[in-house]
TrEMBL record:
It comes from the Bacteria. It comes from Maledivibacter halophilus. NCBIfam families: spo_II_M. The keyword Cell membrane does not apply. Coiled coil: none annotated. Keywords: Membrane, Transmembrane, Transmembrane helix. This is Stage II sporulation protein M. The chain crosses the membrane at residues 20-38, 83-102, 109-132, 138-158, 174-198.
Length: 210
């Protein structure tokens, strides 16, 4: 069973190498742009964000963390992205918007990590590792996978309209497309649980040293 899944995943990646290349490219561009933007903040913007960061650490250090609220917000944010990509995938004009969404996810990560590192140096690197990395080990690959699926499905719709001699069972393909995305959201849910119940533990522990 595991071997069959591995073979299916490898076959999928091999069949969509160019799509993965462009999705990863936009994600990396987003990270780079976010990191650059964190360094290009004005003095006023820097002070505002530093003040917010200090308030955050003081709240975390003095109050109990509402893990369930974090989980709800994380699920909302990540499911919203996944659903938007799913919807864009069933349109023939959704490809650039999917790439922009993936780039935006990279931008947010790049900006956040860049700001932490800029303001706290090595402590910022450590804080990023424990607060951002754990959940994104699951969420980022899952989101990229959904993005590739959305683009692939959109390309299939375009081919079905332009190649009249080639038959596509759109209904079956749509069902498969939707089912796979739903299954991938299980992985995203696990990532959200990590963000809500594991990362805050390390954040609270480290907040006393920040």
């Amino acid at each position: 069973m595991i071997r069959r899944i591995n073979d299916t995943v490898i076959k999928h990646i091999q069949g969509n190498l160019m799509t993965y290349f462009f999705v990863l490219l936009f994600f990396m561009i987003g990270i780079s742009a976010g990191a650059f933007m964190s360094k290009a903040l004005t003095e006023t913007e820097n002070k505002e964000l530093i003040g917010y960061l200090r308030d955050f650490f003081s709240i975390v250090d003095s109050k109990a963390i509402d893990n369930f609220s974090i989980l709800k917000q994380s699920l909302l944010n990540n499911f919203q992205t996944g659903i938007i990509i799913w919807v864009l995938g069933v349109t023939v004009i959704g490809i650039p918007f999917i790439l922009l969404l993936i780039g935006l996810r990279g931008f947010i990560i790049g900006f956040t990590v860049g700001f932490f590192v800029k303001q706290m140096g090595l402590k910022g690197v450590i804080f990023s590792l424990v607060s951002i990395l754990p959940q994104n080990i699951l969420i980022v690959p899952a989101t990229i996978f959904i993005g590739v699926l959305g683009i692939s499905f959109s390309l299939m719709l375009i081919r079905s309209k332009t190649r009249k001699n080639k038959q596509y069972n759109i209904v079956n393909q749509f069902f498969l497309y939707s089912t796979v995305i739903a299954v991938v959201h299980i992985v995203i849910t696990v990532g959200c649980l990590v963000e809500a119940y594991i990362s805050p533990f390390f954040i609270k522990y480290l907040s006393t040293y920040m």
